[in-house]
From TrEMBL:
Listed SUPFAM superfamilies: S-adenosyl-L-methionine-dependent methyltransferases (SSF53335)
InterPro entries: C5-MTase, C5_DNA_meth_AS, C5_MeTfrase, SAM-dependent_MTases_sf
EC numbers, comma separated: 2.1.1.37
Protein name per Swiss-Prot or TrEMBL: Cytosine-specific methyltransferase
NCBIfam families associated with the record: dcm (TIGR00675)
Keyword field contains Cytoplasm: no
Source species taxonomy: Bacteria, Bacillati, Bacillota, Bacilli, Lactobacillales
Catalyses which reaction(s): a 2'-deoxycytidine in DNA + S-adenosyl-L-methionine = a 5-methyl-2'-deoxycytidine in DNA + S-adenosyl-L-homocysteine + H(+)
Organism: Marinilactibacillus psychrotolerans
Amino acid sequence: MKILELFGGIGAPRKALINLGIKHKSIDYVEFNENAVRSYNAMFDNSYAAQDVRGYDLRPDILVHGSPCQDYSIGGKQYGGNIEDGTRSSLMFETIKIIQNLSIWKPRIVIWENVTNVLSARHKRAFYHYLDDMRKLGYTNSYDVLNAMEYGVPQKRKRIFVISTLDKQPFDFFKLEQKEMKPIANYLETNVDDKYTITQPSMLAKIGPGKGVFNGRLTPITDFAWTITTKQMRCPNSGIIPVNDTQYRLLTERECWRLMGFDDYDFDQALAVHPGRKGKLNGILYHQAGNSIVVDVLEAIYKVMDF
């Protein structure tokens, strides 16, 4: 089974296949962010170079793409992703062009993941444009919003997954095996460095219970984290950890990677090529976690696919 990863990030689609023991060949990986490429190469012992998806021509069995979400995200600037916009999120239409260029040969399965805000009134035109283009190419589309919490991961991360198949049989999301959420303690480190302790008065003033991740508060984590984003030194963020009765800390980079489904070996390989500055938070590794796909959710999807 040959897989092509577009906007590949740190390789969640490939990691899920490895975890499941599915025999596969990664025929290529396309990612324009050089830091993500370095982490991917370190984790999977590859030598890929940073490259753009536009004009690319390959023949995979399964194509997975998670085009940049910043222009759809509620937390972003919401520029949109219509093909004529020329935004980062409009790059999803480059996937359409790649499939068109393959002529009579097409990948049997195409998976697209993005933020749920693509279904909002402001952005749904681009979303349905993508679905219509896939239908014209002969695909049957199915989509659903999946929450990582329902697949064992203590992270409230809702993402839309569009699965397009060539065999006219729609993908059945009801077949996905949901799992009991694991304890958040399984993902947290002990003996955490003081650099993660929150000391900024502006952040301390906003600590307290909230109603959601975008409510302008810093919410203490009890059972689960909020969506892992590309930065933690901001308000709001993915949640904070109580250190004692009066102190709180940020999630560490390693904890964010764990909450995205990567193991410590993966993190250590990426850390080796992105060591960061001593005593400072590692913005590169936070960014790579926040931009990834939760591996456990991809595993659930792969399990019910006929490869």
